[in-house]
Write a structure and sequence with these properties.
By secondary structure, the chain is of the alpha/beta class. The protein has one domain: Collagenase (Catalytic Domain), CATH 3.40.390. 48% of the residues lie in helices and 16% in strands. The protein is built from 6 helices and 4 strands; from the N terminus they run βαβαβαβααα. Helix 1 links the parallel strand 1 and strand 2. The protein starts with a strand and ends in an 11-residue tail after the last helix.
Length: 161
Amino acid sequence: MISIFNRQRSISISQHQIKDICRQILKILSYENASLSILITTNRGIRKFNKQFLGKDSPTDILSFPTFNPKELASQHKSAKGLYLGDIIISAERVLRDTQKIIASGIDIDFETWLNRLFVHGICHLVGYDHETEKDFKKMNAKEQEILSLLGTSVPLYPII
């Protein structure tokens, strides 16, 4: 089950499309029976979470809060129904601003495509990937590229924004 809570009103968001892309990502990662929740908020809203949980007093695009650490997750059965992976928080304002900056840099992309790319990133965090070391970054980057390719999406992973 994918639960979505939209706490912002300025940017139109299709909850159906979000659920669909997240289901596809989970299926690719062999977690098709798992659940997660998504909070879509404003820059102000995500800034509060970023400050409270990470000590960073600034808005960001996405935050992920896994239920399990990687070792605990490895002991869970991927196909277990109801396995709760965790929470994702996204600032729709930040995603829109970043999309506009990417477009200005000459890359043809739209809001939904960039948002979907962030869901790939966030869900990878929920299933144990991170980018704390160069080795981990390369591993996560490769997994994200694999997922994006399987989704039929050509999106730069980390454009300059």
